[in-house]
Amino acid sequence: MIGFDGIHCTIRLKKNVLYSETVDVNLHNGDGSIYGNIRSHGTKIKLSFNVPLMLRNDNVTPYNENDFSQAEYIKKKLITDVNKIIGEDKIEKIITNAIEVNCTKILTSAKISDCMKLFKLSYLEQKNQIMTWSREGVGIDIEKITGVLTEMRVNQYRVKIYDKTAQMLNDKGILIKPNTIRYELIFQGRKIRQVYGRDCDVFSVLDSPQKLIDVYRKAYQFEIKNKVKKYLQKSQQLMFEFLTQGIKAKSVFSMCRHLIADGMQIQGTLKKYYEWKGVRDLSKSNSKQYCKSLNIDSGAIYEIYHLLDE
Question: By C-alpha distance, which of 109, 166, 160 is closest to 300?
């Protein structure tokens, strides 16, 4: 499910309005739950709110196409609550600075730990932080890298990938369905202006959320093409080169175990090697044996490639 989460804004006051109050106030739903916050220091006024929390008790399911019919309610409540704090007829515009768009999905074909490992390997390798491409395979122990994986695209968006099940339990004490992953892009700056125009009003965003969701889909495919697919090619090339040097397959895959998040990496490497040797392709059956001995599952690649599928 793809949709919006948090939206972060700047409140621009009318030119003739003088405002010097210091404010730090939460915005509440009718049941008392918090959905947003306003902070100000003089004329600098910041508004942040979580769209799903205006409609339900948590943000596990983002604000998606099934919710778009609630846009008028959201806009009316937002401006009513903001006016109560800042004052009516003082606001010229609420300008959008950042929008969080995510896909949150329960994985069924792979463990979330394997998907997170593949994402981490793919993103960190691009920064040359994972491995030295040598026979020794020296590099970071990926299993010890925990928490949220983040990556910055200047003036475009920030990538944020994490285990939503663990986050909800650790931060909120709420138990949701296991194996739930979230891939979030926080759009900002130039990208928001490209989609919605300069000084984009938050109400324009709420009126046309599908515009940014379409951009999210394209950005996700870009990330997978330039991160995950490149990593898979590079890791398999490394293992293939070891095989061509006469190192036994079991030793190669054991030595490179920290670089493998999916059994398909082994199968792909063996397939390429058998083609190079000009012998019968036994990559499917042989890879299963190596995966079993090394306790490697398959499915992470499939889940990542099909994450946006409904």
Answer: 109
Dist. CA 72–CA 55, nearest whole Å: 12
Give the number of residues written for the chain.
310
Interval 140-185: pLDDT, tens: 344 444 456 666 665 688 888 889 999 999 888 999 999 999 999 9
Q: Are 75 and 203 in contact (CB under 8 A)?
A: yes
Nearest-angstrom CA–CA distance, 150 and 116:
12
Q: What is the reported pTM?
A: 0.89
State the pLDDT at residue 152.
Answer: 60
Contact by Cβ (8 Å): 23, 40? yes
- The backbone torsions φ and ψ at residue 207, rounded to the nearest 5 degrees and listed phi first, read -75, -25
Strand, coil or helix: 278: coil
* Local structure of 272: helix, strand or coil: helix
According to DSSP, residue 14 is labeled P
Type of residue numbered 231: Y
- DSSP label of 68: G
| The residue type at 293 | S
